[in-house]
Description:
- The structure is a single chain.
- By secondary structure, the protein is of the alpha+beta class.
- It has two domains: 3-93, Elongation Factor Tu (Ef-tu), domain 3 (Beta Barrel), CATH 2.40.30.130; 98-239, Threonyl-tRNA Synthetase, Chain A, domain 2, CATH 3.30.980.10.
- The protein is built from three helices and 16 strands.
- It has helices at residues 95-118, 150-163, 175-181; strands at residues 3-4, 14-25, 28-33, 35-36, 50-54, 57-61, 63-67, 70-76, 88-93, 122-130, 133-140, 168-174, 194-200, 206-207, 223-230, 233-239.
- It has a seven-stranded antiparallel sheet.
- It is elongated, with a radius of gyration of 20 Å.
Amino acid sequence: MTTPMYLSDTYQKENTATIIxxxxxxxxxxxxxxxxxxxxxxxxxxxxxxxxxxxxxxYPVHHVETTEDGIAHVLESHPSLLECNGMQCKxxxxxxxxxxxxxSHTAGHLISHIIEKxxxxxxxxxxxxxxxxxxxxxxxxxxxxDLLSTAQINEQVNKLVTQAPRPIQSIExxxxxxxxxxxxxxxxIPQSTRVRMIAIxxxxxxxxxxxxxxxxxxxxxxxxxxIKRKKDRIKVSYSIHRG
Length: 243
């Protein structure tokens, strides 16, 4: 299996690892390492891209995903790579892409927290944090006539981004604690003894395996653009500067 380095440091852009397995797939090759700085696609977040440097040659990584064998770094197939099992490689990610995705993911959490504060009847249920098509969905525990406005939410967003930013950290909690804090979400996560949570200061932590920025001050340009109700769900679309 692969040790996921991205869980402990969003800002780590390079890593040296050992190749432990290779799998040929048509015109592509999946390379597995004992550790990885690459975030694999999933959890509503796009994968990292970048390169693996093997024997001094940089091979572009065009997709990363999690399989039963660990984190697969997918490259174009090349005959010389088939002899690289057991060798060291240097992993380099596209840090600009990483930070764009991390900001978008953190933005979804912040908006969700703000809405929960406005209406305790709503709980986060889904997040799609792809830049250019970002949204979160919240589910109602019971039907109400409360109306959310983009202006109200954006007022709070602006406060937490520009006026009174909050630190963000990754913590681990026991599964029982998670079930108590997040009874709805606890059913949809791996039932591990310890669960990774993302905590924005002042809000209830959320189980998450994604990458996140260190402070809400990094979410400059965040804005809710649309709110749509569908049955017992509220869909909130948002955008954020990619710079």
